[in-house]
Specification:
By secondary structure, the chain is of the alpha/beta class. It is built from 28 helices and 31 strands.
């Protein structure tokens, strides 16, 4: 049982350790680290002393105070005095060493090793006297190191294993307490196993003693699917294989020290990672036979400290020994390489190192290949910094066809560029290098897309909170819980903008308080600020929703799509703008593998555009479209009567919320023209608004002047229009403002239709569309229903948002 620094750092945590150990049945070895923060404090105090800084005494006093406070708080009263006596004696020894460092102005590696050893020596004595019936062993007596030719101290495994058995078997004990990390060499000098060495000490002892298990007690519940500081819904992995655990540790998962796995792996001793502060949690079990479950990957790990160094030359092709020279040179200088990527053409080799090693790596390789560089055979060797490495780990990946393709497609679709990648034939680890600024986004989108997360997440930016936008927020609020529960889809609103203010939060916005937040925390909502904040957030699975009628907001679509932001628009301006701009938006969305959706541009929530796309994609051809697509105009014509003139009908449409705030937009046919242009383009025709023939029922002069006086001016048309209405009524006909596409020709205009026509019985603000195609020629397809209103339009926008998640 190994307990880290945080587990033995305070009186409360040591009380947990005491309870855990004493309640664990059978014989056990307890390996402890120094009290949390003490190792760093021992080193910093030594640095002060060698610098002749008298403040080292204050630092030393803190070391004394920490240990005495723990003794007084946790060691039983019967052992407290004797424990304090031993600890004070050791602290006096430490004080004398510091004095020697100060006087000699020398801090040799030997002296520093001696100083840092006091951390584990002191903590192990305190823990041994805290746990009932425990026996203390000094690990320097049996953890032995040997020095390599390069000066590094490494474990002498054969000697250590023999000494562990001899020392511990010489005594009768139920609970042995040992200090981790520290060791000695064959000459009796104090050495250590390096940072993380306490884990390694425990593993070596478990293997030597043929333990039933190795328990690593720390301050987390186990290995997580990803870093919980980056991914909120990361969760504990129940089981890992030794290989999976090693891969995750090597790529930044700091739960256990990577070499810890090796000794117990060879003895097939399982590792259990547990939380000292939550001992009831199941933890993570690491063994040779971990259950894989149905998921292809177990976890995601990362290194945010990456530099790539690339050696490039056309002269490398077919030349034997280039890579040998690269790695031998780096090894001689102690540079660790954690990723290698080489093209099959052999004209370049890329290695990944820590940023701290980058300059040394480049210098070493330039020296090694000096002749080739001078002759021009090799290109210059330069470092590429500010990068991060992501590792996707899972032994089940080898049984999953197409996983690498899905991985890189997911990353690319979110605008993340993969600079280098590597995968071994074992298929346990796919590693790739990206820009450091994209790390958080990459981790989130991978975690989300590979079903490690309990739900898929869409991060929504909503611009426009008028009638449609407010209705959309209300619908999202009502459906959020159901979508998460039944469809595992989490809608996270991360940005809201009105015409004046905007608020952004990557953690999500409480949409029940959006108006309050806009008033109290909102920033200016100019299009440029909105664009800047969205791109700065650089969040995964982003969806930009435009519920405005603003040309300036529509102008943002192109750049947002270029940055892999999905766009859902109720705003018709972009899709009905000049044809090259429309085409560029569509092509950008396809190229970036994101969505540009605008179903509600025509027919509010009716599935018109989707239907046209489905027909064309399945090989059909649209020959003719006839449509009543202005809910406002249809409402006006349906309420016209002998006692309801045209001007009054327009007022009623405005009062009912069907018309635009400026009803001239509806009556001028401009809105219908835009909708017809969009339908024609989606049907495959290259059409501009100027191509539409307009046959309007309100003369141009009535639209002149301001909007406030429009209704008064319109009253002058009432008598003439009533005459036309009465004539149509006498013939059993209804007025309909029809948009038409016929073999590429487009027009809008007022028609009179009789009871035999599909447009005749069109109540309220309903829309109707007739699609004549090569398949539906004799009997056109009819789509009919509500075509106006905030609720149905918001529902259509909502449907577009959900379609991005591809849920069923």
């Amino acid at each position: 049982m190994k307990f880290g620094g945080t587990s033995v750092g305070t009186v409360d945590s040591l009380s947990n350790v005491k309870k855990i150990v004493e309640e664990t049945p059978g014989r056990k070895v307890v390996v402890v680290s120094a009290l949390s923060g003490i190792t760093d404090l021992l080193i910093s105090t030594a640095r002060l002393a060698v610098a002749d800084d008298i403040s080292y005494l204050e630092s030393y006093a803190r070391i004394v105070e920490r240990h005495l406070a723990v003794i007084n708080g946790v060691v039983p009263a019967a052992k407290r005095e004797s424990t304090e006596s031993v600890v004070r004696m050791m602290l006096d020894e430490l004080s004398n060493i510091y004095k020697g460092v100060l006087l000699l102005r020398d801090l040799s590696p030997r002296a520093l090793n001696m100083i840092v050893s006091y951390g584990e020596r002191l903590s192990s004595i305190i823990v041994a006297n805290t746990i009932k019936g425990a026996t203390h062993f000094d690990s320097r007596a049996f953890i032995r190191t040997k020095r390599l030719a390069n000066g590094a101290d490494v474990l002498d495994s054969e000697l250590t294993n023999r000494l562990i058995v001899e020392n511990l078997n010489a005594y009768g004990w139920e609970t042995a307490v040992v200090g981790g990390f520290i060791a000695s060499d064959t000459g009796g000098e104090v050495t250590n196993l390096g940072r993380g060495g306490s884990d390694y000490t425990a593993s070596v002892m478990a293997a030597a003693l043929d333990a039933d298990s190795l328990e690593i007690w720390t301050d987390v519940d186990g290995f997580m699917t990803a870093d919980p500081k980056v991914i909120d819904n990361a969760y504990v992995i129940d089981e890992l294989t030794f290989t999976e655990a090693m891969e995750l540790c090597n790529f930044g998962a700091k739960v256990i020290y990577p070499p810890t796995i090796y000794p117990v792996y060879h003895k097939n001793i399982p590792i259990l990672v547990k939380n000292t502060f939550n001992p009831e949690a199941r933890g993570t079990r690491i063994s040779s036979t971990a259950h894989h479950g149905g998921k292809p990957i177990k976890g995601i790990s990362s290194i945010n400290d990456t530099c790539l160094v690339t050696i490039t030359s056309l002269c490398m092709v077919g030349v034997i020994g280039v890579n040998s020279r690269i790695f031998n040179a780096l090894t001689a200088k102690g540079v660790s390489v954690f990723l290698v990527s080489q093209a099959a053409s052999e004209n370049n080799t890329t290695i990944a190192v820590r940023n701290a090693d980058a300059d040394l790596a480049v210098e070493t390789l330039r020296e090694e290949f000096a002749a080739e560089l001078e002759s021009g055979m090799f290109n210059d060797i330069v470092p590429e910094r500010n990068l991060a490495t992501v590792a996707v780990v899972g032994e089940n990946m080898k049984h999953t066809t197409g996983l690498a393709g899905k991985l890189f497609n997911t990353v690319g679709r979110n605008g993340i560029n993969v600079i280098a990648c590597a995968q071994g034939a074992s298929e346990t680890n796919i590693s790739f290098v990206i820009e450091k600024k994209s790390l958080r986004k990459a981790l989130n989108v991978i975690h989300d897309s590979f079903f490690l997360s309990e739900s898929q997440v869409l991060n929504v930016f909503l611009v426009g909170i008028g009638n449609v936008g407010s209705s959309l927020l209300s619908q999202i609020r009502k459906q959020q819980e159901k979508l998460q529960k039944e469809k595992s889809l989490k809608l996270n609103v991360v940005g809201i903008a009105s015409s004046r203010k905007a608020v952004f939060s990557s953690d999500g916005i409480d949409i029940t308080r959006c108006h309050e937040l806009l008033d109290t925390e909102g920033i200016d909502a100019t299009p440029e600020i909105i664009r800047r904040e969205i791109l700065k957030m650089n969040i995964f699975n982003p969806v930009f929703v435009d519920c405005t009628a603003s040309a300036d907001i529509a102008a943002l679509y192109q750049e947002l799509l270029e940055h892999n932001v999905n766009v859902v628009a109720a705003n018709k301006i972009a899709a009905s703008s000049d044809y090259p701009s429309y085409l560029r938006l569509k092509e950008t969305a396809r190229r970036k593998d994101v969505k540009y959706l605008f179903e509600t541009n025509v027919g509010a929530g009716l599935p018109i555009i989707n239907t046209i796309n489905s027909l064309i994609n399945s090989g059909d051809k649209i020959l003719k479209i006839e449509a009543v697509v202005s809910g406002t105009l249809n409402y006006i014509f349906n309420v016209l009567a002998s006692d309801v003139p045209l001007s009054r009908a327009v007022e009623m449409a405005k009062e009912a919320g069907y018309s635009e705030p400026d009803p001239r937009i509806d009556l001028s046919g401009k809105d219908v023209v835009r909708k017809l242009v969009i339908l024609a383009r989606e049907a495959g025709y290259e059409v501009e608004q100027e191509d539409v023939e307009k046959r309007l029922f309100v003369p141009e002069e009535y639209f002149e002047g301001d909007a406030a006086g429009f209704i008064d001016r319109l009253r002058g048309l009432d008598p003439e229009f009533e005459k036309k209405r009465a004539e149509a009524d006498a013939n059993g006909e209804h007025f309909r403002f029809v948009a038409s596409l016929d073999n590429g020709k487009v027009s809008v205009g007022l028609r009179r239709v009789d009871s035999s026509h599909p447009f005749y019985n069109l109540a309220g603000s309903n829309n109707v569309i007739l699609l004549t195609t090569e398949r539906y020629k004799e009997f056109p397809m009819v789509i009919k229903g509500y075509g106006a209103g905030a609720e149905v339009t918001a529902a259509g926008v909502f449907a577009d948002i959900i379609s991005i998640a591809n849920i069923r």
